[in-house]
Amino acid sequence: MSALIIPCFIKNQWDIDCLNRLLGSVQSQTKPFERVYLVNDSSPLKYECRHDFVEHIILDKNGGPARARNIGIEKVLKLDIQHLLFTDHDCILDREWNEQMTSFLSRTEFAAVGGMTHSWGKTFLDYYHDINGTLAGKWLLPDKKELWYMPSLNFGMKAFAAEQFPFDERFPTAAGEDVDLCLRLRSKYRIGFCPAAKLWHDYGYKNSILGFNKFVKLFKKYKSSSATVYEGHTVLMWDSSESIFKGNMYESDLQA
Amino acid sequence: MSLIYRLKANHPNFSHVIHDYIGEMRPFAKRVSKPHLVIPMVMLKTIEWGIYRWHKTPIRRFYGVKSNELIYMITNACNDRCPKCGIWERPEPKSQHLMISHFINCLKRLHHNLYQVTLTGGEPLLFKKDVMLIAEEARKLNVPMVIVSNARLVDEEFLNRYKALGHILVISVDSVEKQKWNEFRGRNNFDIVMPKIMLAKNILGSQLRIQSVLSKESAQEIPKVIEWCKQQGIQHNTQLYQDFGAYNWHNAVTEKAMVDDGTPCAARKNICIYPNGDVVKCFDHRRIPLAKEPLGNIAKQDIIEILCTKRSTEVSKIMKTCNFPCKNMSCNKPQTLLFN
What we know:
The complex is a heterodimer.
Chain A: E1 2-8, H1 13-27, E2 35-40, E3 54-58, H2 65-77, E4 83-87, E5 91-93, H3 97-107, E6 112-119, H4 124-132, E7 138-140, E8 147-149, E9 154-158, H5 159-164, H6 177-185, E10 191-201, H7 212-232, E11 241-243
Parallel strand pairs in A: 1-2, 1-4, 2-3, 6-10
Antiparallel strand pairs in A: 4-9, 5-10, 6-9, 7-8, 7-11
Chain B: H1 14-31, H2 38-54, E1 68-73, H3 100-110, E2 114-120, H4 128-140, E3 145-149, H5 156-165, E4 168-172, H6 178-185, H7 190-204, E5 208-213, H8 222-232, E6 235-239, H9 255-259, E7 270-273, E8 278-280, E9 296-297, H10 303-307, H11 310-319
Parallel strand pairs in B: 1-2, 1-7, 2-3, 3-4, 4-5, 5-6
Antiparallel strand pairs in B: 7-8, 8-9
Helix pairs in contact in B: 1-2, 3-4, 4-5, 5-7
């Protein structure tokens, strides 16, 4: 059994369209989720959820995606659900995403798993993210037998791991909190990679020219968060890693 | 352990930048399957690389996992003349001794990350007033502190204050027999120091530890020290390695045996400060070419800025695979392996 946790902060119509698109893909899963929690982080724009399979939790105060996910985790841990999966509102799940993620967690000893993330858009910038592996996971080098890090948009944990390693709510935005979680988690457990668990992420680039500013801002945000994470993890942060893309996603078979 | 290096901090030069850039771009370019997209993609990668390298960003100082040890070699000066150690031969001039406020500031900046602050030397208690200031600040910041001392200058007042702060005192003892003691210390002070160790035991109780350095010269004495510690109920640790100084002491365990023992070096956890404020990741930093020069100086720069430089992170990466005999120094071992 698995539960899906989606933190969201709806600022405009594009966010609403993204969320509806995501929930459509959630609905069409080959293996349905036991529970779907949409944790609305006190969004400025009102969102009415049209799907009755979604438990819509509206927070009265904005606390960032880490806190929103932790609220979802608390809910799930009260139930007899073994696998907690996470994605973001601007993603689209492959039909077999839940099936692949939960199956991987069930048959392996990894405490957490990441799937393969592709760009949804077709601009040069999207193509860049695909080959750069910007939001794909990172192999831990030199062996590539586990992940160094997996972004929380395509991530799953076993319940015991989520209980021991919640997100750090001191991260106020969607940057760095997932790196921090993975670094802490890896002090005790390992993170596996399941290339068959696919999803697409929409970076929101209208085209390669108009999207350029957004592209630069994205990396500035990540630079800022990496400095913060470095302050917390001066030992673990600099293990060697390699970002995952189509060309190296099958370099290790972690299925067994 | 040598303390000799050029005082001028050496920042990565232009060739480091080029090397880093090529190191990033070459594997990335191989990922681009369509030849006509190689140049635009490498341009985008260059932008990302430039942001990560040069974009100045505010660091949120809210956050830390307590995984680092801050080690302050407060002085090179010492009131003993141990032949195993040459540090006392090179006391720093007064003009180069770090103002204590700089270290306190460094401690404040880093305390979220620290599981321990350690004062070593030389003999730290030559600067007893500064040591107590650090001990009190560490207590306020909830960072456990350890002093490694020869115990020559401990007294009842110091011990009572130190006890109240809850910190640990490690006394260096390589023999419990008067003749050998005086020989190993280069001073006839057995009759002065031994009573002080007993006084420390009575006042500090479990906050007192004894550490010995194993060498060919001290090999027969160390088992007696261990036995004596057992009788006294004092936790003891034997350090297997020291880079012995000018008086030709020798390690008892061969360097090869120490390197091949299969244990990893834990020195990456360290943030080490020299008496003049220079920062290194390990007191044996000279073994790594990129780390020969200090990473910065806390009298001139913020410690977080120093640790966030590209060279610091490169040195940390390199240290992950360090396998030198100095991994057997107490400062380079995981905390869990000491004083068992």
